[in-house]
């Protein structure tokens, strides 16, 4: 099953490319929601979420009772595709982004996650443990990345979904470093288990704190000192 966040990200990119090609010019209106959703083979709610992301990017504006106005089609051509903006990011950049975003996301997830969501997270942690028992560092890294992507997918805010897509790509960029330190898989598993326990207990503050601690520990394991504002809450 394709997640709603994946659908929305795909729609955003298709619409951005259509704007870049000049399919709709600045000052023109997009087709009506029903027509455009049918053309793209998606649901109207997914289309509305994608339009919200495009509004945030400054490419369109929703006009009540009128439709969606194209603001700057030329800007769409100049923008990097969704997810490519982190291409030149360092590992420190990746961890700082994760430290900013992931604790807030898991706090929200702790409020809304149901038993099925928690069960899926725990299954992925079991994959990590099985990989650890089998000394399979490749499988362990893949399970680690899958776990964090599953957390991302549980957010329902469409703006977060766009940013989260970039974070997910950034997480994959750090995979080589993770593979080079299989001895830390036990610590990663233990820290992620603490996050899931807090989510299970619907303790948002604790879930956020455990995720901050995990990312700070990741930085220490990689020899990276994160640039965290002094006033920011500690782990």
TrEMBL record:
Keyword terms: DNA-binding, Transcription, Transcription regulation
GO molecular function, one term: DNA-binding transcription factor activity
Classification via Pfam families: FCD, GntR
Nucleotide-binding as UniProt keyword: no
Boundaries of every HTH gntR-type domain copy: 5-73
Taxonomic superkingdom: Bacteria
Keyword Transcription regulation recorded: yes
Protein name per its UniProtKB record: GntR family transcriptional regulator
Species: Pseudomonas putida
């Amino acid at each position: 099953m394709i997640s709603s966040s994946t659908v929305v990200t795909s729609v955003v990119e298709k619409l951005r490319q259509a704007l870049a090609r000049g399919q709709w010019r600045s000052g023109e209106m997009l087709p009506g929601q029903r027509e455009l959703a049918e053309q793209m083979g998606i649901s109207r709610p997914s289309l509305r979420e994608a339009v919200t992301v495009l509004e945030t990017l400054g490419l369109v504006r929703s006009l009540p009772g009128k439709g969606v106005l194209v603001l700057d089609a030329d800007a769409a051509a100049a923008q990097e595709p969704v997810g490519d903006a982190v291409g030149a990011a360092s590992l420190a950049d990746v961890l700082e982004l994760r430290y900013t975003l992931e604790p807030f996301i898991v706090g929200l997830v702790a409020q809304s996650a149901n038993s099925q969501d928690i069960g899926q997270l725990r299954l992925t942690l079991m994959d990590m443990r099985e990989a650890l028992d089998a000394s399979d560092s490749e499988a362990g890294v893949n399970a680690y990345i899958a776990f964090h992507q599953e957390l991302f997918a549980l957010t329902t805010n469409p703006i977060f979904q766009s940013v989260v897509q970039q974070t997910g790509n950034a997480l994959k960029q750090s995979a080589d470093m993770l593979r080079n330190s299989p001895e830390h898989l036990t610590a990663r598993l233990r820290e992620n288990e603490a996050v899931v326990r807090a989510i299970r207990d619907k303790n948002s503050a604790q879930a956020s704190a455990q995720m901050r601690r995990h990312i700070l520990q990741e930085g220490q394991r990689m020899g990276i000192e994160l640039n965290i504002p002094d006033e920011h809450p500690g782990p």
